[in-house]
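Practice problem: predict the structure.
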Amino acid sequence: GNGPAMMLNLKEDEIYPLDADLVIGADGAFSMVRNSMMKTDQFNYSQSYETHGYKELTIPPDEVNGSFLIEKNALHIWPRKNFMLIALPNLDGSFTVTLFAPYKGEGGLDSITGEAELITYFKTYFPDVLPIMPTLAYDFFNNPTGSLVTVKCFPWVVGNNMLIGDAAHAIVPFYGQGMNCGFEDCSVLDELIEAHNHDWSAILPAYQQSRKPNADGIADLALLNFVEMRDLVADPEFLFKRKIAAKVSEVYPDRFIPVYSMVSFSHHPYAEALKEYTRQDEVLTDVLKMPGIEEKWATEYLPQIAERLFNL
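Answer:
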């Protein structure tokens, strides 16, 4: 609505009304601004939790010289079909390790009730990493179990209230794009302020029309990437498709960008990248049916494969 915003002063512990021309709700996945907008007519909202949760764990640096204990220039994934462990390097020589697993069932977090069960779990599923995780038990039982939620809503603008960032579009973390998507909201908003000469009656509708399809796009891509990371990276057919796409990109960098690079290293809209995901996968699935593809893909077949994949 257009009434005054209610402000909470945490220092003084008091609530007071504040009149503002515009209220920008940048208050996260569980936004109170969005909450108040939800009470208005025709406001669509969905929140969807995954059946998986996650635990943050650690691989410390080498005790002797502070170096990395595993390859530092990589995203490490231990895929186990329905669950996975990942490790990302930090500047201090350590790795942030995250276990993504279902709450219940095979590999479920509910099976880990004490230290003995935790060690058994890691010996069973991730034996190679156990020796380099001395603080495993402490980390597991002291760090909270995080949940994975996707929030979608529309409109993002109601009266003089607008949503931005996670308040408008919380996503799961499997593309590493949540914060980037929020920053992109800001840069698009900044461009629109200039293009419409500070006329907010034009800026706000243009902002939500421009950003909503892209926020939905990265939300869907992030969920697809979860399946890729925990399951498909262990699938030879998937890896072969990746290899072909990487080669085409290397030989024809001006004509083809694989979806992951498009999302992570370019300014292509997320909605476009989602369409490309489907298109590229269909082309590559078809390519694998070519006779003798295993022997001929990088030589005889490469130009015609590339021709079908080109997207620029």
